[in-house]
Amino acid sequence: MIKRKNETSILIIYTGGTIGMVHDPKNGSLVPIDFKHITNHVPELDKFGFDLQSITFNPVKDSSNIDPSMWINMAETIEKNYIRFDGFVVLHGTDTMAYSASALSFMLENLAKPVIFTGSQLPIGLLRTDGRENLLTAIEIAAAKEKGTALVPEVCIYFDNELTRGNRTTKYSAEHFDAFNSPNYPPLAEVGLHLKYNFSDIHYPPKNKKLIVNKSFDTNVAILKLFPGINRNFVEAVINTKGLKGLIIETFGSGNAPTTKWFIDDLKEFIAEGGIIYNVTQCHGGSVEMGLYETSRQLLTAGVVSGKDITSEASVTKLMHLLGKHKSKKNVIKFLSTPLAGEIS
């Protein structure tokens, strides 16, 4: 792509997704762009003066097909190029971007460089695409330094004029350009006429600590979203899933659930047999406060772990990460309640 010596260097990692698509002039269908020729579509990149390099996954994947093996691929790509580049921009489909950003926030321990996820709602080859602006600003943020220190050394999502912590972000719109939202944590940067960083909300790692990449995931987890009228057969079908180790229950309001005896008994039995249950609110914003009402006090007594103000995406990836990293149930429960990468307050 663009090679300049002694300049800020940014690696663009294209995993797939709408942003990297252009129309094939022969048949009009959408095909992945060749990022070696990205300046043909975004000539403004030349004005940065950065050393911009790119890696395209083979094959690229629609974000609906992303799984932990892809997270490991992303993390290993960053690990292999960590010393060479000042920052990383990960281009990713929007549907599961918040899952991937959350996963990498737990994988990249002691991260001291920006890893900025971005994408678009319209292909970069279209005239009115949002991809061009998202890509340009994501690169600018990934390159931002002061006295040699990255301004935002976190895994983040940049989309439609806002930079948010990756594990605090959720997708809430399938059609608007402002597709993402961080309901329980302020943006790390806001873009208008100027790029305004909210430094007090950015996490800075301990100095001189080596990057550690955690690559183990255990996918024996499930999500049970509660609803009025939920029946025992359904609950037991989920709880009795072969090999299930961790269950996330998406509860009402501040962590409330039915107090029906069979429901509480089934949860207690799952926990008694070695399972872990993580209580996450199904509300878009707010926090689980177990014990605030009688309808959550019984969950607390049963041994259910509070997810506090974690997002659904972060809860799944955190549970998979901890089950993969720790053999001890006690340690998994301990770290579920502990902020690992700023994912809970």
Key phrases:
single chain; 345 residues; alpha/beta; Rossmann fold; 2 domains; eight-stranded mixed β-sheet; four-stranded parallel β-sheet; 8 helices; 26% helix; globular; disordered N terminus
Q: Helix and strand layout, with pairings?
A:
Layout: E1 9-14, E2 21-23, E3 30-32, E4 51-56, H1 68-80, E5 87-91, H2 97-107, E6 108-109, E7 115-118, H3 131-143, E8 145-146, E9 149-150, E10 155-159, E11 162-165, E12 170-171, E13 180-181, E14 189-191, E15 195-197, E16 212-213, E17 221-225, H4 232-239, E18 246-251, H5 261-272, E19 276-281, H6 294-302, E20 305-306, H7 312-325, H8 329-336
CATH class of the largest domain: Alpha Beta
> What's the β-strand tally?
20
The end-to-end distance, rounded to whole angstroms, is: 41 Å
**Poorly predicted parts:** 1-5
| Net shape | globular
Number of helices: 8
Label the CATH architecture of the largest domain: 3-Layer(aba) Sandwich
Query: What class, by secondary structure content?
Result: alpha/beta
